[in-house]
Every structure is written in structure tokens, then in C-alpha cells.
Amino acid sequence: TFERSADDYMYSDLILIWGSNPLYTQIPNAHYLTEARYKGAQIVTIAPDYSASSVHADLFVPVKPGCDAALALGIAHELIEHDWLDHDFIERHTVGFQAVAEHVRSWTPKKTAEVTGIAEKAIRQAAECEDVQISFGVTLTESMADAVKITVIATGFQPENAPVAQRKAPE
Q1: Which residues on neighbouring strands pair with residue 133, listed in sequence order?
Q2: What angle do CA 159, 160, 162 make, to 5 degrees?
Q3: Which residues are CB-contacts of 144 (< 8 A; sequence separation ≥ 6)?
Q4: For position 27, what pLDDT does the model report?
Q5: Reduced to 3 states, what is the DSSP secondary structure of residue 2?
Q6: Is the peptide bond before 22 cis (omega within 30 degrees of 0)?
Q7: Cα–Cα distance measured from residue 111 to residue 41, given in angstroms and rounded to the nearest whole number
Q8: Other residues' Cβ atoms within 10 Å of the Cβ of residue 87
Q9: Is residue 5 predicted with pLDDT exceeding 90?
Q10: pLDDT (0 to 100) of residue 106
Q11: Residue 123 half-sphere exposure, CB side, CA atoms within 13 Å?
Q12: In 8-141, where does DSSP find H-type helix?
């Protein structure tokens, strides 16, 4: 889900921190991240700098400034290519998905790696996220925001289910 209550981290299998550093900027909530990781959640940090949050991540993806959109398009390519999609959500809540799918077809891991400087393996690992909590920093560009929206739509983010979309509470 997007920008949720911090305690929702506890229900996450994977936490994607993109362009932010919550272990430094959200200190009162930082323990939720560490507790979620202790309970088995994986943490992926995508940022240009190796921050406090990156230190505690299972996967750090060092994106160059200005390359966020390219990375998001590459991740969208992998999601579509491997059919890691919520088709029902896409059909009910999006318009023009086929055009998006066509657009990202050229954003292979190889091309994405060439543009971003990120290893193909790391791009594939970031794309394998499912049931993810997403935490964003400041959106730097409109194109980055659009690319991230494409990625989130492809994976079936459902705001009507917020704050814990596609999650089951532990039994």
C-alpha cells in the first residue's frame, strides 16, 4: 500500500522504500521497520545514496539521480513479461493498459541496466516484489511519478483496501 500507518509494516512480506530514508526521517516509526524485518519481511531500498535505511535493507538498489523513471519502467517490463499482475484490478480500474504494456516492452533488464547503471540481477530482484508496502520520499520528477504509478497499477495496488491492500493479518 501507499503511505500507510507505520504499524502496517508488521503485516508485510516485503517493504519497498523508494527515494526515502525512514530510519532517519521517521525515527518514531523506525522500530516498525526493524520489527517487521525481524518477523521475516524483506526490505528493498531504492535510492541514490547509501543511507541508514539502506544499511538495514536486504536489497539496496543504487539508482542514479534522474534514473528512477527508467528503473520503474524496467520493473514494469518484468512484471508484465512474467505476468506478475492483478488482471482483475487492471481490467476494472485502469484505462490504456495495453498501450503501457507496449511502451514498456522495450525496457528489458539489459536496456534498463544500461540506462540506470543497475545490475540486471538487481532489477529482476526488485521486480519480484509482491504484497509490498511502498514508502516514497519526495517525488523528483513527473515522469518518475508516472512510471511508478504504472508499476503500482500493474501490481494491483488497491486504494479502496488501504491501509493494508493485498495483506492478510497474521492469525
Answers
A1: 15
A2: 60
A3: 68, 69, 72
A4: 85
A5: strand
A6: no
A7: 30
A8: 10
A9: no
A10: 94
A11: 28
A12: 22-25, 30-38, 52-55, 68-81, 87-93, 97-104, 109-116, 120-127
Which residues, at least 6 apart from 100, have a Cβ–Cβ distance to it below 8 Å? 76, 150, 153, 154
DSSP for 127-148, please give it.
HT--SEEEEE-----HHHHHHH
Name the residue among 17, 48, 8 with its Cα closest to residue 129: 17
Q: Is the pLDDT of residue 154 over 90?
A: no
User: Which stretch of 8-12, 49-53, 112-116, 119-123 has the lowest confidence by average pLDDT?
Assistant: 8-12
Alpha-carbon span 159 to 36, nearest angstrom: 22
- Nearest-CA neighbor of 79 among 59, 100, 94? 100
For residues 43 and 58, the answer to whether their CB atoms sit within 8 Å is yes
pLDDT at residue 162, as a whole number:
30
Contact (CB, 8 A) for 96 and 150: no
In three-state secondary structure terms, 8 is helix
The residue among 21, 113, 47 whose CA lies nearest residue 75 is 113
| Structure confidence by residue, pLDDT tens digits, 99-145 | 889 989 999 999 999 999 899 988 888 887 655 544 444 444 444 44
